[in-house]
Amino acid sequence: MKRRGPGLLGLMLVLAAGAAFAAPPESVVREMDALVEALATSGCEFQRNGRWHDADEAADHLRRKQAWLLKRGLIDSTEQFIARAGTESSISGRPYRVRCGDHAEVTSSEWLNEALDALRARTPPSR
Q1: Quick one: which of 5, 58, 93, 125 has the most CB atoms within 10 Å?
Q2: Where is the signal peptide (predicted)?
């Protein structure tokens, strides 16, 4: 029996893998960066695994998670970024929390989604 190369099936697998690791649209990258910057400049504190961190430390942490997820092609939308990077610890599964001044503590998911809504309300859609 003659062995063949990878053929059509192999080509399809390679193309599917390439599509899986495609970068998100530039508009998504801009929104993610704007959210992280909003957190960095918020003056809020960010709780991760039971410890509170200042806004700069929180932003650095989210940037590292963002880079890790982007490298693996795991972010297609800003909402996915929030869900996969900004909601809970990938190690412990404990939810992240945010507190800002005298305001009640909220989940980071709530804070980031509200910040995204505010960002989108201020930013006209790109064409």
Answers
A1: 58
A2: 1-22
